[in-house]
Input
Amino acid sequence: MLEVKPIEWLGDRLRWINTLELPWKLEYVTSTDYERVAVAIERMEIRGAPAIGVAAAFAVALAAIHSQGGLPEVREAVLKAIRRLSRTRPTAVNLFWALERMERVVRSFPSDGSVEEFVRRVVEEAKSIYEEDIRTNKAIGRVGAEVIEDGDTILTHCNAGALATAGYGTALGVIRAAWEEGKRIKVIATETRPVLQGARLTVWELRQEGIPVTLITDNMVGYVMSKGLVDKVVVGADRVLLSGHVINKIGTYVIAALAGRHGVPFYVAAPTSTIDPRTKVEDVVIEERNPEEVRRVLGKLLITVPDVPVLNPAFDITPPELVEGVITEKGIARRPFEESLRRIIGK
Ligand code: MRU
Output
């Protein structure tokens, strides 16, 4: 099995795959600068809910290692980095979850402690977030593989794979685990306009491992389902509310609605760090991205009239009644979600 390491800690530097260059080029970027990591998250060199959480945690570690001065100065520099990183992207809750974990370590450190020990604890926390993410994804895979049957064709949207996490993936983790168990499955990947994570990343990842994948454009989903070509849908999530509302890549809601129409079970695979027990659906911030993403194909070919007004929400909200189950590392939550999700997160 190919081991994709989208993010790697190199002791005092962070290395990541610039996913904007895939599938044309496997380009690694290395930096010691937390600001460079913040820009990589904004530009979507690093993207996918768990991956941005992990990268942000390591960026905080970079700020700790590379700041000068005594403990008060270093602590202040790290808190400044946390504030900066929290402004990179608004929708995926994993970013805030990871930054809150880092901030707890920073704030609980005794003021008479040494800078070296402070830095060590900050780095250790970032490494734990990274390692936990890989373990969690493998557990999601094991749990989720139970709902996948031999011979299934699974439709997935966007990229919820190794490239969207510290490794292994969530929705693609379920697919990987089923494949590793010997189930002969096939995948249909949607291209995922406008950033094309499905066409560029999901297809690339699955082809690396020899898992059969067919690419469709987003607007083919209804036809493909009406022809009985999809047995299950498995997607990732950027935020799952206790109500069971699922915030994920734009286009997810259309797929869920069509799955409901055609009796295809719609599953969401996500770690418990994606479950947000605090936010109500009306308060969710949906990121609105640069209109040029819609007017052009991948920043290049202009496909419309240059000044046409554009809507470019990066995510949408799928209501709970369309969701068959939320596959987490601690089991599958099913309706009524408030009860089952609370049980899973212990709140
Ligand atoms: O805008 P992106 O590429 O960061 O959006 C990614 C998604 O919507 C994924 O489905 C989600 O983050 C889950 S990744 C395991």
